[in-house]
Amino acid sequence: MQIQVAKRLQGTEEYYFSKKLREIEQMNQEGTRVINLGIGSPDLPPHPSVVEALHTNAALPNTHAYQGYKGIPALRKAMADWYHRFYHVTLNPDTEVLPLIGSKEGIMHICMTYLQTGDEALVPNPGYPTYRSAVNLSGATVRDYDLTAENNWLPDLDALANTDLSKVKLMWVNYPNMPTGAKATREFAKKLIAFGKAHNILICHDNPYSFILNDEPVSLLQEEGAMDVVLELNSLSKSSNMAGWRVGMLVGKAEFLNEVLRFKSNMDSGMFQPLQMAAVKALELGKDWYDSLNAIYRARREKVFQLLDMLHCEYDTNQVGMFVWAKIPAAFQTGYELSDKVLYDARVFITPGGIFGSNGNGYIRVSLCQDVKVFDEAISRIQTALNK
User: Fold this and answer.
1) How far apart are CA 165 and CA 379, in angstroms?
2) Model-level pTM?
3) How distant is the alpha carbon of residue 28 from its chain centre?
4) Which one of 7, 143, 262, 313 has the lowest number of neighbouring Cβ atoms within 10 Å?
5) CA atoms of 384 and 388, how far apart (whole Å)
6) Which of 362, 346, 335 has the alpha carbon at shortest distance from 35?
7) What are the tens digits of pLDDT across the range 253-285?
8) Crossing angle of the two packed helices 335-346 and 372-386, in degrees rounded to 10
9) Is-contact 87 237, C-beta < 8 A?
10) Beta strand ranges found along the chain (DSSP E)
11) Which residues on neighbouring strands pair with residue 323, listed in sequence order?
């Protein structure tokens, strides 16, 4: 007897990193430990006050029950205050903020709320693979839009406007961009919002990287009229070193959030209350927290630049976020080829850009989520491999 998987999964492969980590684990068992410079999972801890808040609230006898689907009022208020303090965006915490058990889940919630068979969604190429898989799982059709170095990794909205957009219901955008590290200008943001309104397309902005090596955190909701057409996801995973804690948020107008909540409330039973109280503490941290975090990432990025110079890659020193995106030298056909050579020759794993879409084939991406000493060891290994 053989049970077939549902059609929705037949076009969805296992996540690249899931497969690659198994290969790396096998290599670790067979010999020298592989240095993983691939995945953007922060290696630093949250602020001590955040951990203390978790401990304190978890020790209470009345914090272990199911929680509401909309999160506790204190968390919604903290999220709204955070948006006002750092993005200068005013949100109603009762109606325009929806806590999530991680913003990755929010991508799925949005797709399942608004998309169905016959619909189309605009997805960046290169871009975060979850946008594509979530659209596919919803039954809708992915419409790639190109991001290129020539256009500063911004979509050509004029070119898109000249295509048939009649079936497009939503568009995924992500700035600061992952994987390219590009920032969006205020001028582009205004044009993007006008584009969404003109074509009746919901603009879904995934915004988890805005505090990492970026002097000016930006929200699309800063722009006039954005609330009419923008849903924005944000997260504590990167900015607060809380990736495994799974605390995200969806912000936008009440009508949109209530529609998403209709799906979300059928998928989870609320977030653990002590986690929510710890997230409140994280959101109350001031600019000095982000400055100290970025000082560490800045030192690491210098090491990554040194590593990429050894590999004869080209990169933009002004990119932001938790990774460095780099163009491979002409000696290699694809980023996969360079990635595998470094992995097998030096036992250092670097992400091939092609996993983010065909426009990433000529690139690699290096994560900043390792200590400076680890980068020094990676540089030493690669130098030894190159000299053989």
Assistant:
1) 47
2) 0.94
3) 28
4) 7
5) 7
6) 346
7) 999 999 999 999 999 989 999 999 999 999 999
8) 90
9) no
10) 35-36, 97-100, 120-125, 141-146, 168-173, 202-206, 230-235, 248-251, 314-315, 323-327, 348-349, 351-352, 363-367
11) 367
